[in-house]
Amino acid sequence: MGGLEKKKYERGSATNYITRNKARKKLQLSLADFRRLCILKGIYPHEPKHKKKVNKGSTAARTFYLLKDIKFLLHEPIVNKFRDYKVFVRKLRKAYGKSEWSTVERLKDNKPIYKLDHIIKERYPTFIDALRDLDDALSMCFLFSTFPRTGKCHVQTIQLCRRLTVEFLNYIIASRALRKVFLSIKGIYYQAEVLGQPIVWITPYAFSHNHPTDVDYRVMATFTEFYTTLLGFVNFRLYQTLNLQYPPRLEGPNDKDQADEAYAMDSESSLEKLSALSASLARVMVPVAEEEPEIDEFPAEGETAEQEEGLRREHEALEKHKRLFEGLKFFLNREVPREALAFIIRSFGGEVSWDRSLCIGATYDEKEPSITHQIVDRPMQPTPVIGRCYVQPQWVFDSVNARLRLPVEDYFPGVLLPPHLSPFVTEKEGDYVPPEKLKLLALQRGETPGNVIESEDESEEEGEEEEEEGDGQEEEEEEEEEGSEEEDEARLKVMEEQRTQGKGWAEVIEVLGCPQKPQVTMGTLDKRRQLPQEEENEAKRLAIMTMRKREKYLYDKIMFGKRRKVREANKLAQKRKAHDEAVKAERKKKKKQGAQA
Amino acid sequence: MAGARGGRRAGMGARAPAGDRAKAGKRPADQQPELQEAESSEELPLFNCPAPSQSAADSGSDPSESEESVFSGLEDSGSDSSEDDASSTEDGQPRSIPKMTQDKSQAGATLQNTKEASIQSQEPKKEDEYAEDSSDEEDIRNTVGNVPLEWYEDFPHIGYDLDGKRIYKPLRNRDELDHFLDKMDDPDYWRTVQDKMTGQDVRLTDEQVALVHRLQKGQFGDASYDPYEPAVDFFSGNMMIHPVTNRPADKRSFIPSLIEKEKVSRMVHAIKMGWIQPRRPRDLTPQYYDLWAQEDPNAILGRHKMHVPAPKLALPGHAESYNPPPEYLLSEEERLAWEQQEPGERKLNFLPQQFRCLRAVPAYSRFIHERFERCLDLYLCPRQRKMRVNVDPEDLIPKLPKPRDLQPFPTTQSLVYRGHSDLVRCLSVSPSGHWLASGSDDHSVRLWEVNTGRCLKTIPVSGVVKSIAWNPNPAICLVAVAVAESVLLLNPGLGDLSVTSSTDQLLSAFSPPEEPPGQPVEWQEAAAEEQEHGLRLRIHHKKPVKQVAWHGRGDYLASVVAAAEHTQVLMHQRSLRLYHLLRQELTKKLMPNCKWVSSLAVHPQGDNVICGSYDSKLIWFDLDLSTKPYKVLRHHKKALRAVAFHPRYPLFASGSDDGSVIVCHGMVYNDLLQNPLLVPVKVLKGHTMHRDLGVLDVSFHPTQPWLFSSGADGTLRLFT
Fold first, then answer.
1. What is the structure's pLDDT at A235?
2. Nearest Cβ partner for A436 among B300, B325, B634
3. B313, B327, B331, B660: best to mutate for the A interface, most A CBs within 10 A
4. What are phi and psi of A39, to 5 degrees?
5. C-alpha pair distances (Å), B2 with each of B5, B6, B185, B204
6. Any chain A CB within 8 A of the CB of B184?
7. Cα atoms in the Cβ-side hemisphere of radius 13 Å centred on A231
8. In terms of Cα–Cα distance, which of B418, B401, B398, B417 is closest to B409?
9. In this complex, how many residue pairs, one in chain A and one in chain B, have their CB atoms less than 8 Å apart?
10. Cβ A555–B317 below 8 Å, yes or no?
């Protein structure tokens, strides 16, 4: 009845989206430039809810962007720079073709450059936002800093990446922000907590790269361009928060000689010294005394008091964790990954050195008598020095993750190492917990570690028991060294707590059918008790029968997921059991053979 | 000793070309040191030219010559001369000798340069200096030209002399022992090399050896050459008051250059036109500064609400460790399965591995790949906020009244009636609840006592019993049985004698009605032997009868015939129709929304109907509500065969092909506003599956909350 005829696809979701090609045309950019712009500005495609409607009736596969995003890109000053650059390249090519070298010179002088500062500010309005998005930036920069200086990408980029990552590592050391480390088969994962934000990055092992051919290095280089800018600004700000000089400079007497140097990082040697990670950084003004902000105590009651108590305890644990290696002196053998270990040890307060010929920045010699730990990754140590522990590198990593110095016996050179667990896994109820983790948890609570495993072994193997008891005693001795009387009391308290917790664990184990508690035999359930249980079950089954179709589907899905989880946990537990039995059998066999011999 | 040997080896390479070069260089008569130097430098590359390292030096070469000759040169001519006579190459020799000697003499005594290679100066003949030599480079003793000498490997000769005669190779019949003896005996063995061009052994002179040593050390060939002479400036570096030359200045140095003017004007034009930009002033802001000095937490700066920040990468688990607990390592089968999976489908994108120590961990080959994939994810993947369903599954289960509160209902199987040898297709309970009649595919009808499970009577019939129904009138004891094309009326003769006799009396009063032929049914009296079994009447239809039913008071009997075009009551498959019997018209048509209706039961109060269907649904109709189903219950896994209402208790049951009977509480309230409450209360299992059939019929006891069911396994079961 009157009015204009409504046309299709002129309203609604069809007008909110734009295909990639159209967007490209609108911006008048080549595809490569469009991609680069999207990377820099963080624009990503959107999946419309009704693809056919948005696609004007067609079902062809297309990439859609939000129209708002593209309009947002239209005002970007960098787009003009891209166009300028295109013109510049054209002019340069022409000048080369005509062999007009003066023109070439002049053009090169006027090469259009762009800065990404405003984009960083725009994408990360607050500093915390930037920190939150630092994971990828760090991983990428660490990867690029290991690239060879030939081919693949510009040398300047690689150098810049190296510089920025070294600066970041130095910041982490200075602020003692490292929390977790993990040796994976892919590389080394680190987790640091910077201003309350967890930041995780991965560094590859120090080998040369086998560069794959199916990787587009231009895309990665564009990302790196953005990430280096971001990381530079973040580093600046982080150094500022700690009152460190930003172009970082090492503390020490020769600092004054270099004072006239505008930028310490400009010289290769200073970068190398800095990347040795062995010396602390110079500060803008030397702090008078480290003042830890004490948590004020407010009179509180009930739950809040408990919460506060918990918070305070957590805070204390954290402080203790930060000083994990304080007072220890490490020496790295040349076969261990120097940079990773130096970084970790220094960020927990330890002192570290290495062979002078291995790298610049060694602070003391191998013969130094005050060395407490020497990190060795060889089966044999020819002439061990008395008074220091020779440990494998995993000890450092495991100790950091366990938040305490683990007993070194398991980590002697040539010894079969205990499994290295991921610190990033927090097991929920019903998940499979490896027995090593249980042991570790017990250790963290202050128990002697043998308890869980010893008790079962008692009945089975007397010989083993003795060994384990021996272990337990040693560890106790160690603890006594550390602890004072007050701590003893605290430990008792903790013991009580964890005993109750231990029961909880046992229950979990029972549920999982874990092999850890063989003395719990499956009893036959009392019939009288069973009956109401069954009735309940049946009532539930009937109720499930009456569920609606949609709810039933959801319910089935949830239950399927739960069952799968349990199945997986059971499978792992079974595998472990089989493995343990095999190991035990082997050991028995050996013992027998030994006895016969 | 070692040094000497090294020198010799090098000398062997150097010798032959050195001789050639020497001649070539000296040909032009200038003997200036510069030239020599040039030559020496020219020679260096040749030094490397490979020479066959046969050290077959003729022992015949006389060592005496070297001492006397001041000019080192190739003394091969001398040595050869003695030898070559024997090897019949005399022709070349004399020719070459004179020329060489001339060269040497030309060079003069001042030239100690070894490159002035020449023969010993026995016969200096100056006259034929250039007589026969036309070539600069070739060794004139051998005219073979500049060809690889391997070409002559298989020939006895090595080239041709100037007269075109063959130059034969010296006889080589010495073996390793001879060489060894030479090595031991001959003090000059180390300085003896073979001339490649002539095949002769040549003994190097002291000068030549010295030259070789110098060249080996990278020094200049000429020992007297000093490369570090003090440089004498052409001009003095100081400003002088006088010009260097006395030449008057050019005119062009006084007038402006036109070319330059043109260049400048071109540049000026370009600047005016904006073609040349002035150099951009350097950016003075530092590369990094405090970007977030004034941060505004509320700024969204162009970001819209739909922006989704990139999700973080998943953190690694225990399996990714370089030394994981043993249970996380894949077994052989798992590993194979992992390898056969598509990379996209794999749960882990790596193979868990265990290394004994950190030193053994290799580089991860897919590291760059993974970073790259992350990059692609960041800029190519559409992002979506996915709402995780965080529902406690217990909350999804509807809260139902507890079955215990809804008692009584049958809960356990108490009796099994065995006897039939085939499917028990139908059953019926007597109105008193004492007897049970069942019809089976084994062509028999059995009558049972409910309380004991005893089979009281077996009545054979002529076909498969399709349906059986007990007359609801308690005063009559009569059972209607549908067999093939007829309905049989039986008097089972059970229970109260008066009742059975009254029934017989009633039936004996029957006389075949006088009706016009062509009626659909035909009433017949049973034969005598059938009377003994209790059969009283036979109603013969023309088509197979599917079902029989009595009217509520037992006065009327209805039968259903399955053929489609029949005029009688039809069972419709897609819908149910309600007929008003008195008015004989269709009142309602119910749409059950299922494909095959198998069974039907009416609530004792009459307002509700349930029907079971072969697509495993049970449908409850509330006739007051609508013609559409009030509720569809999908409790059974398989097709429903029978449904039944209890005449007294609010119960209904359904039997299905999956072998189970489900009893539901179906309370109908008198209040019209309250909907019926349907709660399943019990799943009764007992019947076993037989030919994919389970329960075929169910029926309630008329007074007790008991349930009878008949199954394909040939049994009837009582649940109480």
1. 93
2. B325
3. B327
4. -65, -45
5. 5, 6, 17, 18
6. no
7. 29
8. B401
9. 263
10. no
- Letter for the amino acid at B340? Q
pLDDT computed for residue B16 by the predictor: 39
Mean pLDDT of A420-431: 87
Closest CB from A109, A335, A392 relative to B279:
A109
Distance CA A419, CA A437 (A): 10
Query: Is A543 close to B400, i.e. CB distance below 8 A?
Result: yes
HEC letters along B259-273: HHHHHHHHHHHHHHC
pLDDT at A140: 94
**Which residue would you say has higher pLDDT here, A231 or B406?**
A231
Confidence (pLDDT) at B104: 41
The model's pTM is 0.65
**B368 interface with A at CB cutoff 8 Å:** yes
- DSSP 8-state assignment for residue A500: H
* 3-state SS assignment for residue A174: helix
Dist CA A56 CA B248 (whole Å)? 88
Provide ipTM, 2 decimals.
Answer: 0.82
Q: What CA–CA distance (Å, rounded) separates B528 from A283?
A: 124
d(Cα B151, Cα B427) in Å, to the nearest integer? 116
DSSP string computed for A7-31:
PTTSSGGGGTEEEHHHHHHHHT--H
SS3 B617: coil
A39-48 pLDDT, tens digit per residue, is 999 999 988 8
Cβ within 8 Å of residue B222, ≥6 positions away: B33, B36, B37, B40, B113
CA distance B353 to chain A (A): 7
Yes or no, beta carbons of B371 and A543 under 8 Å apart: no
Residues of chain B with confidence (pLDDT) below 70: 1-140, 296-305, 509-521, 527-528, 530, 552-557, 559-586
Give the list of residues 6+ apart from residue B471 with CB closer than 8 angstroms, or none.
B431, B477, B478, B479, B480, B550, B554
Listed in order, strand segments (DSSP E) in A392-491 are none
What is the rounded CA–CA span in Å between residue A583 and residue A587?
A: 6
Residue A302 structure tokens: 């009930």
> Mutating which of A184, A377, A416, A554 best tests the B interface, going by the most B Cβ atoms within 10 A?
A184
